[in-house]
Automatic annotation (TrEMBL):
Protein name (database record): Cell wall hydroxyproline-rich glycoprotein
Record-linked PANTHER family: LEUCINE-RICH REPEAT EXTENSIN-LIKE PROTEIN 3-RELATED, LEUCINE-RICH REPEAT-CONTAINING N-TERMINAL PLANT-TYPE DOMAIN-CONTAINING PROTEIN
Leucine-rich repeat-containing N-terminal plant-type domain span: 6-38
Compartments reported by the entry: Secreted, Cell wall
GO biological process, any: cell wall organization
Alphabetized UniProt keyword annotations: Cell wall, Cell wall biogenesis/degradation, Glycoprotein, Hydroxylation, Leucine-rich repeat, Repeat, Secreted, Signal
InterPro entries: Leu-rich_rpt, LRR_dom_sf, LRR_extensin-like_regulator, LRR_N_plant-typ
Gene source species: Linum tenue
Length: 328
């Protein structure tokens, strides 16, 4: 009966359902509702309970009512690519076995949905492509998640020093206003991290050598930030790396030879920086190598001599970067 109350309350909170996903949401047998999936109840396998909601790509408009907290056996809640707005219900606190929460590509707004910090079973959190704003709480990086997608919101926050506490395999923060420096704690993610995308944030300072500890990392995207100084030689030890994008920053100095010798590297983008040389080995990447708009003598489509001279006259000493990124 509680599931019926929850879903009927939700149906009343829907203002547009052009594809008719909820047209059969009638009657007490909620397991027959489109997008509702039932399974044996954890505390009584002889009974069916609502274990999953999947209304992805339904183009539904409405809000999420507090009654959804009655679905206490819910393990999966997927409603991406709709027009839901408002906030996530505080009653989600009761969803103690919720494993996956995907509300991406909707119209949710307001501060970070703190209720997600209190879901003990959560492993997959996707709130990207919404209009959440304000700080990203550092506590989110202490959650035992496997995947975290916060990208394409309106967050305005500092990148927290405990970033490396997160055990995720995939972390995407891109296209927010997240400033500061990449903390040395990132090295703690070495055993789990496969993909990290920190593009178009506003990150500053030098890229610390600890980044090279990420031996399992396949994708590293730091493009469109304000990072300075040379690329660490330690990146040449990231033997699993397939995609590396550091384009549109303020990096300078030579490209470390070890990077272009990485055995699995397919694409290396370092365009729109101030690099002064690149090893011949980078040529093996062919079209996967993008060196435009740097200061590399003898290469086409580089910056003007005047631009390069200006940066060359004021080199960045990353040994002094503690004054920019005072983590200690």
């Amino acid at each position: 009966m509680s599931a019926y109350i929850a879903l009927q309350s939700w149906k009343l909170a829907i203002v547009s359902d052009p594809l008719g996903f909820t047209s059969n949401w009638a009657g007490p047998n909620v397991c027959n509702y489109t997008g509702v999936y039932c399974a044996p109840a954890p505390d009584n396998p002889s009974l069916l309970t609502v274990a999953g909601i999947d209304l992805n790509h339904a183009d539904i408009a409405g809000i999420l009512p507090e009654h959804l907290g009655l679905l206490r056996d819910l393990a999966l809640f997927h409603i991406n690519s709709n027009r839901f707005c408002g906030k996530l219900p505080a009653s989600f606190l009761h969803l103690k076995i919720l494993h996956e929460l995907d509300v991406s590509n909707n119209l949710f707004s307001g501060p970070f949905p703190y209720v997600v910090l209190y879901l003990p079973s959560l492993k997959f959190l996707d709130i990207r492509f919404n209009q959440f704003f304000g700080d990203i709480p550092p506590e989110v990086f202490d959650l035992p998640l496997d995947a975290l997608f916060l990208n394409d919101n309106k967050f305005k926050s500092l990148l927290p020093v405990n970033l490396g506490n997160s055990p995720v395999s995939v972390l995407v923060l891109a296209n927010n206003l997240v400033t500061g420096c990449i903390p040395p704690s990132v090295a703690q993610m070495a055993e789990t991290l496969d993909e990290i995308i920190l593009a178009n944030l506003g990150l500053t300072g030098c890229l610390r050598p600890e980044i090279g500890e990420l031996k399992e990392l396949k994708v590293l995207d730091l493009s469109c930030n304000k990072l300075v100084g040379p690329l660490p030689e330690s990146i040449g030890g990231m033997v699993s790396l397939e995609q590396l994008d550091v384009g549109h920053n303020k990096f300078s100095g030579p490209i470390p030879r070890g990077i272009c010798l990485l055995p699995k590297l397919e694409n290396f983008v370092y365009a729109f920086n101030y690099f002064t040389s690149e090893p011949a080995e980078c040529g093996r990447l062919g079209d996967g190598n993008d060196d435009r708009k740097n200061c590399i003598v003898g290469r086409p489509r580089q910056r003007s001599a005047a631009e390069c001279a200006l940066v060359g006259a004021n080199p960045v000493d990353c040994l002094l970067a503690g004054s920019i990124c005072p983590f200690e």
